Structures are given as structure tokens and as C-alpha cells.
Model the fold of this input.
Amino acid sequence: MNNKLAIFGGRPIRDKYLPYGHQWLDEDDIEAVVQVLRSDWITQGSKIKEFEKAVAEYVGAKYAVAVSSGTAALHAACFAAGISKGDEVITTPITFVASSNCILYMGGKPVFADIKEDTYNIDPEEIEKKITNKTKAIIPVDFAGQTANLNEIHKIAQKHNLTVIEDASHALGAHYKINNKWIKIGSCLHSDMAIFSFHPVKPITTGEGGMVVTNNTEYYEKLLMFRAHGITKDPDKFTNEKIRNAPPWYYEMQELGYNYRITDFQCALGISQLRKLDGFIKRRREIVKKYNESFKSVEEIITPYEKPDVKSAWHIYVIRLKLDKLRATRKEIFEALRAENISVQVHYIPVYYHPYYQKLGYKKGLCPKAEKYYEESITLPIFPAMKDQDVNDVIQTVHKVLYYYRR
Ligand SMILES: *Cc1c(COP(=O)(O)O)cnc(C)c1O
Done:
């Protein structure tokens, strides 16, 4: 038998390390990229618009603006929303730092609202408590691919005249139900803008890449400018009176934008990947089903909760340890799982724990539920390219390690 934990010198469940997330690229994805590389336009060509159109159609939004990363998308969305010095923006501490850093980029102040205990998503009641006369926007994150309480957040935003920028980095392809109707994430029915990331562990990938979607024309135009240095080439938008009859070379830089452009070969990959998204999510759901069924018998963990009115994109699968039922710390269990060659992770360290935020004056104790969640959570591998054997290895490893440490 193979009972001795690898961390104590036993044989690991796997010989080869299993990552927690991984892209799935086929020959046709590669071919799509190569075709663009052989063409005249490897950037600023037609593939960018084509990808934007494909994503906008897929999610059911009017406009889409592709950028160089999810972080750039968040930055651009904060710019379009007009976040500026002194503005407060409410977000969750259980997210990647980019969801909050984008507020700082604009000179705004991130305000952290605690999470819900079942979904680990930002709690609308906690949002309400944090609203002041300086609050300008809310950035909910669809954690793990499960949509935040967008309907409730939307109502709060309307009541207080706030902009909602949805960080849907985990959730391309997810749905939520309102009045018995399934709504796709990114349709922006309950948010002003939604952003996606195309990093390799995300639902689809372009290497690095991101997108903002919106139904609002004004935001759309600002996003376009921000992506390209704040420059416009549209004569109708020129503000310099003397140049009303603009010469052909003329353009105006009107805002302090960035170069946040994405390349055409990345967008070609994105178009190709998007066609596979529904299949990817289907596979993720299969894996979740296997995990859930197998972990029913493991009393020392809490498996993730999917609300009945949500269809998660299952970007990550987070288990929570019942530490009072275990003879080990989260760190010991984490290391034991890794020693079996299963790459577990933790999503996330509360944003305000990071030294940069501590220096800004954020103190531990701010969001008790988020902090407790952080102490107890471990992310198991999940990605569509996982083989059944990989899934079984994860299951076996969890059983092996938790069996050993149970009280
Ligand atoms: C990945 C991620 C981002 C940042 O996306 P990049 O494309 O890596 O810049 C932002 N927010 C969340 C929640 C993410 O998971």
C-alpha cells in the first residue's frame, strides 16, 4: 500500500507534478496564431476587432475593448468610470491584488467589505455599511467563477448613484438567474462594465490579455482612448479650434492614457479559444462533480457551494479545512498535499495583508470572515485539460492526507 505520506518519505501519489491550472491549446489554436504571424498586421490589425466582436456577442454586451491584460482592463474601467483622487471604491479582500490596485492607480481609496461565508463573494450588506459620501464605485469579483450578488449590488449602486465595475476574471461563461431567466456574465445588465482576464489559468487564454465589456457608449469611447495613450484620430472629437480643418497627419492626445494594446496574434488565439469555452466549462463541471461526490465522505473539509441560481465557470475549486477536526495546521496539510506532487494553492491572501497596503494604513482585523476564510482554505487543481487519472490522483491525495491527519 501507499499510505505513508510523501512528506514523510512515502511514495508520492504522482511522479509528475500536477499544476493547479493550465491552458489547453490545440493545433488549430496554434495555426490561428501562426496565420497572423505570417500576415502584414501582427498588431493593430483586424483580429482585435474580430475578437472584441466575438466576445461581445458571446456575453451579450454592446461593446468590448481588448487590452493587454486583465489588470489593464481594470485600470481602463476605473479611468472610464472617472475614479479620481479621494474617491472611495468598495471591493473584496478575497481577490487578486489587481482588483484593488486599479483603484490606487487612479488615486482612489480601496475600501474593503467583508465576504459571505457560503460563496466567499463580497457581501452586499457589508457593502452598504461601507458607503460614505465619497464612495464612487463598487468592484465586485465573481470569485472562483461564481457570480457575486450582482442583482443586489446593482440595487445598492442605483440607490447611491455608484458605478459597478465587475471583475469577472474568473467568470467568462458563467450564468446567474434572475426571475427565472439565465443571464450570462458580461451582459452588463447589473454592472456598468465587466472585465475579463485571458491569463493562461483563466477560462480562455491569449497568453496575456484582457477585455472590458459595456453597453455604455461614453465608457466605450473612453476605454478606446485610454488603451492608446489618450489619443484620438476622430476629427469630430478634436478640441483644438484652430485645427477644425485638420491636416491628414493630425491627431490629438486628450487624456493621459497608456499603451495597453493587445496584439493581433493574441486575439487570433482568443477567437479560437472562445469557440471552445463552453466545452472547457463543461469539463470543469464534470471534474467538480467528481470532486464533490468523492469528498462527501471527507468530514474534515467543506466543499465549495454553488448557489442554485448560479452556474459557475469553476475557475478554481477551493476546499475549506475544519481545523478543529484535524491534527495539523493548514500549512502542514498544504505541504503534505504538495509533497504528493499535487500543486495546491491559496486564493487569496487578503489584499490588505500585503506590505504595500499595510504601509497605507490598512490593519488586520478589518474583514474577520475573509481572514478566517484565508486561514482555512486550499485550492485544488482544476482545468479542462485534466485527464480522469489526474482527477483521481487529486481525489486520492486528499483522502490520503486528510485521513492521516484526522482526529
Ligand atoms: C487574473 C486576475 C486579474 C488580473 O488579470 P491579469 O490578466 O493577470 O492582469 C484580476 N482580477 C482577478 C480576480 C484575477 O483573477
Notes: Residues 69-71, 95-96, 98-99, 141, 167, 169-170, 197, 199, 210 surround pyridoxal-5'-phosphate (CB under 6 Å). Residues 227 and 260 are 5 Å apart (CA to CA). The first strand starts at residue 63 and ends at 67.
